[in-house]
Amino acid sequence: MTLRxxxxxxxxTVLGYGxxxxxxxxxxxxxxxxxxxxxxxxxxxxxxxxxSDLVEWCRVTAGAEVDGITISGGEPFEQSEGLxxxxxxxxxxxxxxxxxxxxxxxxxLPWNYLKNNHSDILALLxxxxxxxxxxxxxxxxxxxxxxxxxxxxxxxxxxxxxEKELDCxxxxxxxxxxxxxxxxxxxxxxxxxxDKVDTLCEKGGLVLKNVSWxx
Length: 215
Hints:
- By secondary structure, the protein is an alpha/beta fold.
- It contains 7 helices and 9 strands.
- A hairpin with a 7-residue loop joins strand 1 (2-12) and strand 2 (20-25).
């Protein structure tokens, strides 16, 4: 089984509890205005990789230190068969390694739609953050806009993401990672933060090209 994958990072500390693996899938037809991940929209078949290879990367890269995995996109549920296979394989790895981790998945689809159409996938998740991003609404903890909801599906999800545990995620919203070719802004920026990054860079004589928040 394969999935279109945009990127994967370790460690991610702003999209859930503890040190996490972040997996961004490729392809989204929702196209929320002002989405900061517009690079994940195209259905780029060159981004396909085997689920087994992706999970092996997770195992080798993070090992027993992983606290959780966050899956985003793109729209993960638009690759439902591949997403199901990914979750099943991740749960096998979790069982074999005996690590205590949660799996959190973002979706721009309505919660009622997910419940009615993807119960098999939901059964393998601990937390789902759903609903489309609306740029004119204020952000909340772990959410880009206040219409988005956090669904706690398991005991570990409830323990780690109940309302009293969410405060720590509001001010710790974005982290930066750098490799040989890219600067990665990971997380959920406040409204207009990325436009401010553009402006500050331009004032310093630096022009950012091919940025995700402009497609």
